[in-house]
Amino acid sequence: MAVCTAAGLACAALTAMPASAAGDSLSAQYRTSATGATADQVEPWLEVTNTGSTTVPLSTVTVRYYFKSDGPSVSYRFACSWAVKGCGNITGTFGTLANPTATADRYLEIGFTSGAGSLAPGQNTGDMQLRFYRADWQTITQSDDYSFNGAQTSYANWNKITVQKSGSVVWGTAPAGNDPTNPPTDPPTDPGNPGDPNAPTLFDDFNYSSSSDAAVQQHGWTVKSGQGGPGVAGATWSPQDVTFVADGASNKVMNLRLTTDGTAAGTKETELQTTARKFKNGTYAARVKFNDTPTGGPDGDHVNQTFFTFTPLNAPMDPDYSEQDFEYLPNGGWGETQNIMYETSWETYNPDPWNAVNTHGQQYGSLDGWHNLQITIDNTNITYYIDGNQVAQHGEPYLPETPQWIDFNHWLIDLAGQTSSTPRSYNEQVDYVYFVKDQVLTPAQVQSQVAAFRTANTTFKDTVPGS
Fold first, then answer.
1. Is 307 within the bounds of a domain?
2. What is the average per-residue pLDDT within 224-250?
3. Residue range 348-370: average pLDDT?
4. Domain of residue 62, CATH code
5. Quick one: 157 and 225 in the same domain?
6. 65: β partners
7. Of 292, 388, 307, 385, nearest in space to 340 by CA
8. What residue numbers bound the domain in which 53 lies?
């Protein structure tokens, strides 16, 4: 086969398309960097090209790579090594075919978050260097896989990969009897049993009088005090600035206040963390109000407003360290000059000299106001949602190995954003936090569970066993 041009403009003419694809507006190009009959990892590198006449949002596009599993009990993990669109904007899930064939009983489905943007006519996604491997790291046989072509080491059209737009096939030919449909008849496998009413659960509506309320500690929370990282050396963590304020007739929200006068000594930050490390796989959710501007004084400080989970770093490059972050920077920071949200998954790091093993998704633009944040973790992926929309997904090596804490903090990255000596304060508010152990819930299921707690006037519940 001929190789597609760099821009992908001529790809549609390079191979014969199936009859059903005569009106295609998208095509798939494939190459592999793992050409052997067996491999440690399958490496389907992909590009998707818009060969039509209208702009296509990538969030409506999926791509399927079909393969024969090495056994009915073998599980696989997806990873993105590098992509022009950003690995944080690419998702990978595995599914089981409704009608297995001699060369395919599973598939890897690649999707895109809204952060991947759109493809104008003639554009393509650019390089997506993807891979997947057995969860037990045993060798994979790929010579019997439907979508594998070890001879294709340069990008070219490949119709043994299907491209779907809004669930309908627009390119390629699936294994016999397995054309994807909308809605799908063979959805990706979903670990766990979402919605189990008996699953261990934490729910806190933050119905406290103050940070010194005895119930705060009794309910398993620690309010940070003193000094120490992250952020500006010499800043102070202030329990008095963790308050609980009325939000309507009966509901309270937690307020995390950050105050600064442009100096380390004049900076007070806030943090609330679970006392117990007992949270790992499952669904984490919180409703958080971010604020772009201070309550008074000059704006521009590099503040960080967060919701995250983590384990401690016991030594440089500790293999048991993990962290999953929502970090909103309303005034930028870390080299960014505008509003940005990060979803960062950490494997480990070395503080000195700095060496980070992590990956992230990101979205530019203001998130001022209330938002529903959600993280789900299973044995395959860490998936991040904002207001019901998936914004990032990360697989190995970033999955947590040990139990974690749940944490909210509001801190100052550096003193470079605003140098004025006029005191100013920023607020981050939290309506509730919710965790359910070993269950992968949809955003709609989370909202239903939270509504049920509030209907029952349940302000706190913790049935999650200790680690």
1. yes
2. 92
3. 92
4. 2.60.40.710
5. no
6. 108, 161
7. 292
8. 11-171
Strand 236-237 to 268-274 pairing? parallel
Q: Is the same domain home to 275 and 206?
A: yes
Q: How many domains does the chain have?
A: 2
Report the C-alpha dihedral over residues 156, 159, 162, 165, rounded to 10 degrees. Answer: 80
Neighbours of 118 (CB within 10 A): 16
For residue 226, tell me if it sits in a domain: yes
Strand partners, 350: 355
Residues 272 and 385 in one domain: yes
Q: Are 391 and 385 in contact (CB under 8 A)?
A: yes
Rounded Cα gap, residues 158 and 149, in angstroms:
9
Residues sharing a CB contact under 8 Å with residue 179, sequence separation 6 or more, in sequence order? 162, 169
Residues 262, 379: one domain? yes
Distance CA 455, CA 43 (A): 49
Q: Answer yes or no: is pLDDT of 139 > 90.
A: yes
Q: What is the CATH classification number for the domain harbouring 226?
A: 2.60.120.200
pLDDT at 401 over 60: yes
Chain centroid offset of residue 127 CA? 21
Please check whether residue 236 lies inside any domain of the structure: yes
> For residue 123, what are its two tokens?
């554009």
Phi, psi of 454 (to 5 degrees): -75, -35
Residues 315 and 235 in one domain: yes
Taking the CA atoms of the chain, what radius of gyration do you get in angstroms?
24
Q: Examine the domain organization and report whether 122 and 232 are in the same domain.
A: no
Please indicate, yes or no, whether residues 166 and 231 belong to a single structural domain of this protein. Answer: no
3-state secondary structure 148-186: CCCCCCCCEECCCEEEEECCEEEECCCCCCCCCCCCCCC
Provide the whole-model pTM: 0.62
**CB 223, CB 239: distance < 8 Å:** yes
Query: Do 165 and 288 share a domain, yes or no?
Result: no
**Tokens 């030919």 correspond to what residue?**
173
Go through 179-209 and write b for each residue having 16 or more CB atoms within 10 A of its CB, e for each that does not. bbeeeeeeebeeebebeeeebbbbbbbbbbe
Is the N-terminal amide bond of 183 cis, ω within 30° of 0? yes
pLDDT at position 263 over 90: yes
